[in-house]
């Protein structure tokens, strides 16, 4: 019977091992093809995604990322929600489907208000009566401009908003057909540099970032440093206040955690390679635990961010050591204080006992009832003091009990001495014949 079942069992075991090995080999050789939704081919999102795809492929050949040109954040969010893209780059204020999760903060994007040199625009409110190129409706930057417009109390009737693409706005500013343009773009953008150098256009300060955050928390106070777009002239000629928000790399919730972790790892551990292809990648930073990305972190990204967190005992070893040392010091101090208090109470009780013994000696030396009465009063005054000290914890209960014994002895001695003196006086007063 054993030989009858042995062969099938061996065959099944071998087949199972072969299947397991084949599955393992397939997984090892599997290539993950991902699509990242970006923006216009001449934009910052596209340039960053191209650099990321190149660096990921160099270190993880099994992950291939195809860079997809799109119209920007809103389309990227739609492609992710419809599972037509695996990754996407969005502005921090973009509304997303719950199925989309964050991987990392990327570079900051700065709100640029650029005015023609002859437009006499020095601040945002100077846009009244001007022709202003604004982002197209449906773009990620359009809601930001509308938010600024509301904040500065500008109505559409106060100026002439002209929705157009970035390339069109640059051409029309250079041709003198508009007075200003508004764009949200990465700091140091080559296209902005070229525009400013060609036209002598001016960067207009945008301040009040903190008050704008009250209604749009993703905004953050920033600045455009002196010389950002030309160090020789320089452009700008001084640091000017600005408002910015972060670009965020996002993915679908169903992306395998291991893949998301590899991409997150590439962003921060191979940053130098990213920077060599896209310099603004140097501005990436790890998310702060106190901040809110506006959406949840993908588990794979969270695994990477938490991998270096120490165990609880290690992380709080210093605090726990301090608390333990403090507890030991406090216990020692309490013990020392108790010893001091006990010693103080004992010394005070000993003082009373010595005084009682001194009274006892005086009682034995007293020769008149008046002296004994004076000693009795002193004895009761001392008893009153001892009771008061007992109530105020200046002596202990045990010390009080030890005091009452010699006190009773002295009181009994006084009474005995008084009796002897009374008998002696009675005897002295008797007639001589009665003494016989």
Automatic annotation (TrEMBL):
Pfam families: NMT1_3
NCBIfam families, per database record: TRAP_TAXI
Name of the featured protein: TAXI family TRAP transporter solute-binding subunit
Protein's organism: Thermoleptolyngbya sichuanensis A183
């Amino acid at each position: 019977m054993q030989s009858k079942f042995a062969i099938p069992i061996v065959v099944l075991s071998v087949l199972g091992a072969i299947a397991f090995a084949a599955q393992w080999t397939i997984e090892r050789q599997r290539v993950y093809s991902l699509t990242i939704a970006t923006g216009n081919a001449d934009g910052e999102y596209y340039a960053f995604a191209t650099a990321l795809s190149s660096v990921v492929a160099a270190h993880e050949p099994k992950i291939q990322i195809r860079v997809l040109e799109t119209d920007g954040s809103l389309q990227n969010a739609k492609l992710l929600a419809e599972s037509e893209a695996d990754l996407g780059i969005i502005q921090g204020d973009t509304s997303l489907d719950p199925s989309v999760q964050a991987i990392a903060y990327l570079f900051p994007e700065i709100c640029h208000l650029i005015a023609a040199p002859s437009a006499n625009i020095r601040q945002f409110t100077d846009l009244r009566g001007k022709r202003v190129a604004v982002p197209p409706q449906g773009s990620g930057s359009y809601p930001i401009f509308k938010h600024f417009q509301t904040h500065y109390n500008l109505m559409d009737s106060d100026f002439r908003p002209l929705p157009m693409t970035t390339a069109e706005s640059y051409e029309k500013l250079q041709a003198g057909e508009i007075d200003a343009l508004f764009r949200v773009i990465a700091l140091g953008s080559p296209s902005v540099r070229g525009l400013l150098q060609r036209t002598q256009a001016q960067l207009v300060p945008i301040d009040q970032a903190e008050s704008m955050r009250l209604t749009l928390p993703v905004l953050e106070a920033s600045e455009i440093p002196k010389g950002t777009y030309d160090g020789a002239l320089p452009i700008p000629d001084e640091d000017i206040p600005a408002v910015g928000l972060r670009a965020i790399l996002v993915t679908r919730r169903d992306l395998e955690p291991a893949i998301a972790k590899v991409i997150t790892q590439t962003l921060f551990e191979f940053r130098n390679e990213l920077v060599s292809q896209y310099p603004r990648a140097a501005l990436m930073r790890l998310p702060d635990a106190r901040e809110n990305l506006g959406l949840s972190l993908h588990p794979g990204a969270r695994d990477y961010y938490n991998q270096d967190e120490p165990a609880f005992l290690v992380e709080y070893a210093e605090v726990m050591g301090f608390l333990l040392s403090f507890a030991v010091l406090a216990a020692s101090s309490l013990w020392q204080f108790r010893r001091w208090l006990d010693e103080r109470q004992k010394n005070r009780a000993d003082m009373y006992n010595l005084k009682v013994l001194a009274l006892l000696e005086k009682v034995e030396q007293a020769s008149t009832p008046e002296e004994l009465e004076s000693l009795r009063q002193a004895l009761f005054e001392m008893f009153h003091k001892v009771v008061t000290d007992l109530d105020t914890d200046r002596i202990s209960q045990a010390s009080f009990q030890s005091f009452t014994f010699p006190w009773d002895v002295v009181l009994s001695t006084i009474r005995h001495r008084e009796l002897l003196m009374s008998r002696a006086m009675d005897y002295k007063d008797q007639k001589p014949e009665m003494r016989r």
